[in-house]
Design brief:
The structure holds two protein chains of two kinds. By secondary structure, chain A is of the alpha+beta class. Chain A contains six helices and three strands; from the N terminus they run αβββααααα. In chain A, strands 1-2-3 form a three-stranded antiparallel β-sheet. In chain A, a hairpin with a 4-residue loop joins strand 1 and strand 2. In chain A, helix 1 packs across helix 2. Chain B has two domains: 138 residues, Alpha-Beta Complex (Aspartate Aminotransferase, domain 1); 240 residues, 3-Layer(aba) Sandwich (Aspartate Aminotransferase, domain 2), CATH 3.40.640.10. Helix content of chain B is 40%, strand content 13%. Chain B has a seven-stranded mixed β-sheet with strand order 2-8-7-6-5-3-4, sandwiched between helices. The relative contact order of chain B is 0.16. The chains are: A alpha+beta, B alpha/beta. Bound molecules: pyridoxal-5'-phosphate (PLP). Pyridoxal-5'-phosphate binds next to helix 4 of chain B.
Chain lengths: 137, 389
């Protein structure tokens, strides 16, 4: 059902945990559909220097969370905003169709964390791409 | 350590017993006739078919001529429920069922609803037992069928079948029960339990897949939903799956002979698993009834953990189990059975079903008990629900 990369990230998730005093936090999902994830970022000079996550959900939800932390780390926040759900799925070697929507929320969580960073550290509101309709099955 | 290969998903399907395979083989290569044929080949097949019918009947205290063979549990449920509904549609259009039926019953009822039949889905207690008072209250003048499962496939609760049978008999309403999960684990007696129609399938009792049976009490009339050559009293036309039926008969014979010893064995494993899990893992719970449950079923939930992750981690460790979590199926809703118990969504997503067979051992359960707490702990480390408690 899952690609070897998904299984690897599921079994050995990278960057699990919480960042104390983060520069940004993003939470998406809903226990109703069985997925809930939070992404924490630490930012220096607009570069994401650390990312951590916690996720309640299926293997796809855990693997996408783990993958997004690897993809975001070291990137400029504006570059990280360009990471899409499709990029995450592609880097994981694909996801089963049924999981593309319900469990592929990590990009949204990262975008919300960056939005939170802009608000908190720069006092600016920015628009980010999220898919609220997929969070409330 | 070498990865074990332990099968704890016996409510999904079971290993075919070696004796069953052995009984079936000659009917593929030697006695392969069509049971409708006049020649010797056909008569050999016919004889095997009828001997098997008697064995299936004996498991549930029925007469052989009250059994028809089908293509499985789903098909038996459809033949029974639609057969009664269509046959009696001029008499009434009301059907009573429960909120925790297997999809084979639930979706059949929903399909009938779309055709204009009216359904009542009787609720269950928080332990998963059908409320018989509510069931009796919901009976109407135009009620034509009551269908309530003998025992539940997810949480293993044994339903008050005899009481429901009495209620149905008192009101003169046919009573169908899906006993797919009960067979071979608890006693089924269609006479004592006032059952008019009963569904069985071979693959849950160490028989082959794709063979089932429907018990139809003498005098109960069904409208056929499958038309053809008129096999199985015109209710299930199609050349009989003789080898499969022979395997089913053998599986029933073994199940009936060793029913109590096997049940005791499975109950020991179940109790060992339940006690071990609840004692060693904090915030772990048993879903369903503590005692009124199938001897082979344990169903847990663990705060902060989603079921699919748990099942996959256990599989990595060598244990085959299952979950009612939506994420592992093709739907996005969590199990309707766990929701019917009144669980919250995140609880309903976190179930782990462990189901034993007569082939499982205490050593396997002990290995499981050594493995599970570590996996639960790992998943909880990742979980925001656990860490935010
Ligand atoms: C309670 C119940 N009814 C019906 C079925 C369907 O049986 P089958 O797979 O033989 O169609 C199952 C098995 O999945 C079951 O557990």
């Amino acid at each position: 059902m899952y690609s070897p990369v998904v299984m690897d990230h599921f079994k050995n998730p990278r960057n699990v945990g919480v960042i104390e005093n983060p520069d940004g936090v993003g939470t998406v999902g809903n226990p109703v559909c069985g997925d809930l994830m939070t992404v924490y970022i630490k930012v220096e000079n607009d570069i994401i220097v650390d990312v951590k996550f916690q996720t309640f959900g299926c293997a796809a939800a855990i693997a996408t969370s783990s993958m997004i932390t690897e993809m975001a780390k070291g990137k400029h926040v504006d570059e990280a905003l360009k990471i899409t759900r499709q990029n995450v799925a592609d880097n994981l070697g694909g996801l089963p169709p049924v999981k593309m929507h319900c469990s592929n929320l990590a990009a949204d969580a990262l975008h919300l964390a960056i939005k939170d960073y802009y608000k908190k550290r720069k006092g600016v509101d920015i628009e980010v791409e999220v898919h609220p309709e997929d969070h409330t099955h | 350590m070498v990865k074990p290969r332990i099968y704890f998903d016996n409510s999904a399907t079971t290993m075919v017993a070696p004796e069953v395979v052995e009984a079936m083989l000659p009917y593929y290569t030697q006695y392969y006739g069509n049971a409708s044929s006049l020649h010797t080949f056909g008569q050999e097949a016919k004889k095997a078919l009828e001997e098997s019918r008697a064995k299936v009947a004996a498991l549930i205290n029925a007469q052989p001529d009250e059994i028809i063979f089908t293509g499985g549990g789903t098909e038996s449920d459809n033949i029974a429920i639609k057969g009664i509904a269509y046959r009696n549609r001029t008499k009434g259009k009301h059907i009573i069922t429960s909120s925790i039926e297997h999809p084979a019953v639930l979706e059949t009822c929903r399909a009938l609803e779309k055709e204009g039949f009216e359904l009542t889905y009787v609720r269950v207690s928080s332990e998963g037992i059908v409320d018989t008072q509510e069931l009796e209250r919901s009976i109407r003048k135009d009620t034509i069928l009551i269908t309530v499962m003998h025992s539940n496939n997810e949480i293993g609760t044994i339903q008050p079948v005899e009481e429901i049978g009495e209620i149905a008999a008192r009101h003169g309403i046919p009573f169908h029960t899906d006993a797919v999960q009960s067979a071979g684990k608890i006693k089924i007696d269609v006479k004592a339990q006032h059952i008019d129609l009963l569904t069985l399938t071979a693959h849950k009792i160490h028989g082959p897949k794709g063979v089932g049976a429907l018990y139809i009490r003498k005098g109960i009339q069904l409208q056929p939903i499958i038309h053809g050559g008129g096999h199985e009293k015109g209710l299930r036309s199609s050349t009989e799956n003789v080898a499969g039926v022979v395997g089913f008969g053998k599986a029933c014979e073994i199940a009936a002979t060793n029913l109590e010893a096997n049940a005791d064995h499975m109950r020991k494993l179940r109790e060992r698993a339940i006690e071990g899990v609840l004692a060693s893992i904090e915030a772990s719970y048993l879903n369903g009834h503590r005692t009124q449950r199938l001897p082979n079923n344990a169903n847990f939930r663990f705060t902060g953990i989603e079921g699919e992750s748990l099942v996959l981690m256990l599989d990595e460790a060598g244990f085959a189990t299952s979950t009612g979590s939506a994420c592992s199926s093709h739907k996005l809703q969590p199990s309707h059975v766990l929701m019917a118990l009144g669980l919250r969504h995140e609880e309903a997503h976190g179930s782990l079903r462990v189901t034993f067979s007569r082939y499982n051992t205490e050593a396997e359960v002990d290995l499981f008990l050594q493995t599970l707490p570590g996996i639960v702990g790992e998943l909880r480390k990742i979980s925001p629900l656990w860490n935010r408690r």
